[in-house]
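quick one before i forget lol
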Amino acid sequence: MITSLHIKNIGIIEDININLNEGLNVLTGETGAGKTLIIDSLQIISGGRFSKEMIRKGENNSFVELCMFCPENENAIDGNIIVSREINSNGRNLCKINGRMATVNELKDFMSKFIEIHGQNDNQNLLDSKLHLKYLDGFIGNEIIEQKEKYKELYSRYMQILQELKVNYGDDKERQRKLDLLKYQVNEIEEANLKKNEENELEEKRKIFLNSEKISENLMETDTLLSENVIDSLSMAIRALEKIEDIDKKYEKASMSLKSTYYELQELSRDISSYKDDIYFDEEERNYTEERLDLIYSLKRKYGNSIEEILKYSENIKEEIEHIENLEDYNNKLKKELKELEVKMNKLGKEISDIRKEEAKKLSFNINKELEELEMKNAKINVKVTYCENEFFKTGKDIVKFYITTNLGEDEKELSKIASGGEMSRTMLAIKKVLADTDKMPILVFDEIDTGISGKAANSVANKLKVIAKNHQVMCISHLPNIAANADYNYFISKDVKNERTKTKVKQLKEEEIIQEIARISSGEINEISLKYAYELRNKKAS
């Protein structure tokens, strides 16, 4: 439940704190004092839309914060959850859940589990058709639990098999398509007849092709210089040293070293001469090298960053081909089990659907009975269960939607299409009354619930709110004495004008103040007759 609500700079609200309690909390007060702004603030803190025109004049931002006591919730800290939202005039939002930053969508999703607002411009869960099946099953209770659990087990295995078949290429066309692709890839790689060091060798050869002219010129020059200059000069030097080598050992040693160099240079000269022959390639060899490299580059783009990776990829897909080709028997077993599951799920789903359809009639009848007591005698709720012959859902084979006819002669329409805020609130109240014991939403807010009603209908609304408040914290803005008299806690909303500025004030009323407020809203003034009527209403509530 909400324990405290802090609102700052929204409309005429300057800065207020409201301490709320369990049970039925009723807000009454002057027209234009800011009661609706309090509901708007709850919508804002629940992730609802916000217009910057709502920021109090002269201020740069608005701020809403509430504290909820939810000791069993995993997000609670010492039993409390604190949620806040600050909106600046530049449109920037700052949302926090227990001090943790959150987006508006995260805030909306989080708060949807705690608070439901019934009024003109809200998006309450009961209007979400995706949740209507949940409400119907909650109304049905234990009668359907066993069948749903059995169906859930079958559905879980059903989805598991579908996923496994998908991974295993269980679809014949998909499997064949995959096999054709893998075989094409293997064939493409094998036809290339790749060798591990081939790319480097081809790259070297290609480099020579591209530089053949330059290589030829420099080899020729080197060969000429060696043979015509260096080697001839060394030969002459050797002959000169030979003439004096018997005079001193050092000349002999120098002569031997020079001869060794001479022989090495002759060998090097022969090598260089042979290099010249290597640079002559015919056009066919050039073309082959280029085409081969292009093929390797193409395969690398498809299958790996190197020849080694391409060959490894080929081995892997060969294994995958073998795996897929041997899957047929296993997949056939899975498909057989899938058909058996479908038969069981269809049978169980039909049983569940039959129960739902029967109970939907009871739920519709009970809600319509409540609507009649709320002076909506021409309104009819129809909880419609549609059995889907060829589909399986996690919850069965049904789609459940709440439809309504608000006036005689009109076509029924989805619940979310109710136009009037008062009609919507009373319809939601009727549904909530019937679902009070099974609905787990902890906080319910009703706005404009007493629009256009009085007398017997007002008593009925008050009584239903009281019943709902036994299992939920209820907040309600009202102008009816009957509802105010049934409240567990009453709050008076007023406005105060100072320095030509208006601001909202909130006060929790004591018992004598409650009597006076009931008297005021019952007749417009506080006198002996209205006070007597207020006491009677209040005593009726107490009894």
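fyi The two ends are 26 Å apart (CA to CA).
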